[in-house]
Write a structure and sequence with these properties.
Blueprint: E1 7-8, E2 15-19, H1 30-41, H2 49-60, H3 67-74, H4 83-94, H5 100-105, E3 111-117, H6 118-127, E4 132-136, H7 153-162, E5 163-164, E6 166-172, H8 178-182, E7 184-191, E8 194-197
Parallel strand pairs: 1-5, 2-3, 2-6, 3-4, 6-7
Antiparallel strand pairs: 7-8
Helix pairs in contact: 2-3
Length: about 200
């Protein structure tokens, strides 16, 4: 699937449903789960732990730097794994974390938009026949970002860059996605398997 195509409609406005991924249609945080999965397989990753702790404290405690900077430090672990093999094995054991309520209502034109890296979500989207994915562009071999973390207002910018459609239903677990909720006809807040109107 080509996730770099821009979708536009002539003469009428198409409506599509948009979903966040982590803790929305996936039970848990896929990036954190993948990190722990690789940590158990590749103990050499432990060498990066002190720098990750330092970067996390710098961003969350001292409010310095960006989330993109912090995540690039975390993604250094990619240099110590076999990305293609490990990602495939990860989804074999974690596909079960895709929530059943989503599978029950999935449509062919659903859009997934997530801060998690595209290299991690693309395989499971292909397995589930999800054709439209917007996610953070991270080099799977180096952990370096192209652009910034797909989060908050950046999700709106990337969505509008790629799609000339109206968001009908939008689902997310986090109020950080309020910018997307504001441009959606029917936004919903997801708490586990409970779906509530966005307030």
């Amino acid at each position: 699937m080509d996730y770099n195509v821009t979708y536009k409609c002539d003469g009428w406005l198409m409506k599509m449903n948009v979903y966040d991924f982590d803790n929305t249609i996936y039970k848990g945080d896929s990036t954190a789960d993948f990190y722990l999965f690789c940590f158990r397989k590749h103990l050499s990753i432990i060498k990066f732990l002190p720098s990750l702790i330092k970067a996390t404290l710098k961003f969350y405690l001292f409010k310095r730097g960006s989330k993109t900077d912090m995540k690039q430090v975390m993604y250094r672990f990619l240099t110590k794994i076999n990305p293609e093999r490990d990602i495939a094995e990860f989804w074999k054991s974690h596909r079960k974390n895709i929530k059943q309520w989503y599978l029950n209502q999935q449509k062919d034109d659903d859009i997934i938009i997530s801060a998690s890296p595209e290299f991690l979500l693309k395989p499971i989207c292909e397995t589930l026949n999800i054709k439209h994915l917007i996610a953070s562009n991270v080099d799977v071999n180096t952990g370096k970002y192209t652009g910034v973390n797909c989060h908050g207002e950046e999700k709106v910018r990337l969505f509008r860059e790629k799609f000339d459609v109206e968001i009908d239903e939008f689902y997310s677990d986090s109020k950080s996605d309020t910018p997307l909720a504001k441009i959606s006809k029917k936004p919903f807040l997801v708490k586990g398997n409970t779906i509530l109107p966005w307030e």
